[in-house]
Design a protein that fits this description.
Helix content is about 35%, strand content about 20%. By secondary structure, the protein is α+β, with helices and mostly antiparallel strands. The chain has a three-stranded antiparallel beta sheet. The longest helix has 11 residues. The termini are far apart.
Length: about 80
Amino acid sequence: MGRLGGFSYRDIVKKLKILGFEFHRQAAGSHEIWYNPVTNKYTTIPNHTGDIPEGTLSAILKQANINSETFLSAKK
């Protein structure tokens, strides 16, 4: 497991909220669209049980224009 492994949907959403993202709308199936009004970036997050695969989290961060260091260091 790499550095981006072991994050659940809830963990990812908490960190994205800290980084300025907010829920925008429900997408197809169990996916959600999140939006950051400051950076004008959207990202799609699957709302599944269990951990989100590292590749999926990497794609989420790429869409949101967030590097892994910023994501990992985000906390309240």
